[in-house]
Amino acid sequence: MKDLTVGKEGKLILSFALPMLYGNIFQQFYNIVDSIIIGRYLGNEALAAVGASFPLIFTLISLIIGVATGGTIIVAQYYGAKDLARVYKTIDTMYIFLLVASLLITVVGIISSSAIFRMIDLPEDIIPQASLYFNVYATGFVFFFGFQGTSAMLRGIGDSKTPLYFLIVSTIMNVVLDLLFVVVFGWGIEGVAVATVISQAGAFFSLIWYLNKYNPVMKFNALKMRFDRDIFKRSMQIGLPTGFQQTFVAVGMLALYKVVNMFGTNVIAAYAVAMRIDSFASLPAMNFAAALSSFVGQNIGAGKQERVRFGLNATLRMTAIISIAVTLLAWLLPGAIMQLFTSDMGVVEEGKKYLFIVSPFYIVFSTMFVYNGVLRGAGDTLIPMFVTLFSLWVIRIPISWFLAQHMGPEGIWWGIPIAWAIGAIFSFFYFRTGKWKTKKVISRN
User: Among 112, 321, 427, 443, which is 20 to 30 Å from 289 by CA?
Assistant: First the structure.
């Protein structure tokens, strides 16, 4: 556990963000390994099927993760205020919510997956594999939410290292099981999903065991948990805007897939690979923004608002350096990166076009996320939601659809950085108004 209210701001944020970044790199690593094994051993249709499943998974989990984010902010602010009794209540409340929510979306997702894939015009020859992969993956939602929720609560009390160690073990297990189930046993696309479910379950149960034995704050005892309505209401007030924001992003991804699907399997497969690369490239921004949110939450809880601007500036500098380095890598080695996933040169060439267009704007994406990290840490989550809705639904999807009619798939790719730029501009100007400073969500009495 770490007190983020004292010490050099940039150093604190860096030391707090790096374990989260390492952990998510490992998490993305096993997602990438999934895609490499699928592309190399199961073909482009299977690669496209897994890629199409991702926005559906994201859509189902986004609202729940958003509400849990509200709980994390409350934990951070109570912990900064040294109110441990309410920290315990918030953790219990979030666990109960995540359990019920995970069971609900598992049922909804399995029932509706095939219909959703048809709704976005996924080619009929891909739908059976996409549905099979998704339905097996969905059985592990309860473990996914358990691990992610526990990790988020730990970040709220200043511990970003513990989840890293368990995620590393989970990643290694997933890679080994991927190779065993697909290459040795020949299970096909369902083998990849089973490997992920087993790995997520192992990470969750082992993390809970460790915390119960060694952590003085985070204790998991299902029989003693109590649901606090007031804390849940506050979590909903803070987290729902973030949840809706992420949900609309996810639904927007599904809508964008409807445009991508017009251009056939090669473009769908290229986009599936490109999303994996984007997910990897965006990790520094997302993790530094999450670290900044915890930093802001604790400092506002402790009544030290003056430290927020120093933390923001330090985070902007660090993410800019990383974004430029990632962009250079994507520009210098686009073909080599794409060929990790597939040897089909049609897919490789389309993916190279995507990287040339989108990667120079990673720095814009990171800027947007960092500013939104400050707003979320302060409990001001409504404005980022509106910014996301506007940049995605008013800008990205219409422009991508319009440009696709005139430029083909490249038009879709250009819609992505245009939306990022507009989102970053709006977030910057709202931050400059200073209204987020009035959004503190806890009382110190």
Answer: 443
| Alpha-carbon 392 to chain mean position | 17
Q: What distance in Å separates the CA atoms of residue 29 and residue 187, rounded to the nearest whole number? A: 21
Residues 197, 141: Cα–Cα separation, whole Å: 8
Buried b (16+ CB within 10 A) or exposed e, 296-315: bbbbbbbeeeebbeebbebb
**Per-residue pLDDT tens digits for 258-300:** 888 888 878 888 888 888 788 778 888 888 988 888 888 888 8
- pLDDT at position 103: 93
288-337 confidence digits (pLDDT tens): 988 888 888 888 877 788 888 889 999 999 999 999 998 999 899 888 98
Q: Is the pLDDT of residue 30 over 70?
A: no
| Whole-angstrom distance, CA of residue 254 vs CA of residue 247 | 11
Residue 392, CB half-sphere, CA atoms under 13 Å: how many? 19
The greatest distance separating any two alpha carbons of the chain, rounded to the nearest whole angstrom, comes to 64
Instruction: Report how far residue 297's alpha carbon sits from residue 304's, in angstroms, rounded to the nearest whole number.
Output: 10
* DSSP code per residue over 230-278: HHHHHHHHHHHHHHHHHHHHHHHHHHHHHHHGGG-HHHHHHHHHHHHHH
Q: Exposed, middle or buried: residue 190 (CB in 10 Å: 0-12, 13-18, 19+)?
A: middle
pLDDT of residue 36: 79
CA–CA distances in Å: residue 45 to residues 51, 179, 188, 268: 10, 19, 12, 9
Q: How far is Cα 295 from Cα 6, in angstroms, rounded to an integer?
A: 10
Cβ 23 vs Cβ 291: under 8 Å: no
CA separation for the pair 385, 240 (Å, rounded): 9
Is the four-CA dihedral 198, 204, 209, 210 of positive or negative sign?
positive
Q: What is the mean pLDDT of residues 410-422?
A: 92
pTM: 0.70
Distance between CA atoms of 220 and 108, rounded to whole angstroms? Answer: 27
Q: d(Cα 441, Cα 76) in Å, to the nearest integer?
A: 11
Handedness of CA 145, 150, 151, 153 (dihedral sign): positive
Contacts of 132 (CB under 8 A, 6+ apart): 189, 190, 193
Rounded Cα distance between 365 and 367, Å, is 5
Separation of alpha carbons 122 and 124, rounded Å? 6
Q: What is the DSSP letter of 82?
A: T
d(CA 114, CA 132) in angstroms, rounded, equals: 9
